[in-house]
# Entry
Amino acid sequence: MLEECIYFINGFGGMKEESEIFLKLLSKKGLGVNYLYLPGHEEAFNDNVVAKEDLINFYKDTIGEKPSVIIGHSIGGEIAAFLAAHLSNITKVILLDGGIISSEDFGVSLEDELINAKQILSSGNYKYMNEESVLNLLSLNHSIQLSITSKAYKTPTLLLISDLQEVLPTKLKRSKNLNDNISMKIIENASHTIYQDQPEKIAEEIASWLNMTNCK
# Structure
């Protein structure tokens, strides 16, 4: 029986309702997962983080001191790995197509990323997002990316990546230098929204890995 609390941090622009099928599948496997909002998103609309310590405290207030597993998608994965490097009670991390590449791998600067984000937010389809908060979050994320590539990163981690061909070679190249505490698996027929494309497969892989690591 899993003793840790389990949390899920969605990707940039992600909404809680988009993860409901995935989280229900995990629940059916005995894994009750708590949803954590990104700063500037939905119920955390008015929350703003500008420094690394702000980000740590933002999630620490919810996670507390109990042993915890963090599942993170995309930017949520970057945050999950970063938190694991700073909060000792995070015992395991599960990354869903996150944590293994950066925007700069494809020639996209932080300035370009912020301009693109502003254009998306101006469309009027993202009223659940606070522009100032999410732009600060993107800027902060730029400074914490690729935490799992550090030799000091020791948290047991499952990395599930999509087989999207445009970015797969970059992921595979970087994965060759990852520490032994990180297990990686490619999920076929999945885009970046990996947990929505293959929710049953992702839930199965997570449950299997958690059972295996808890038996060691």
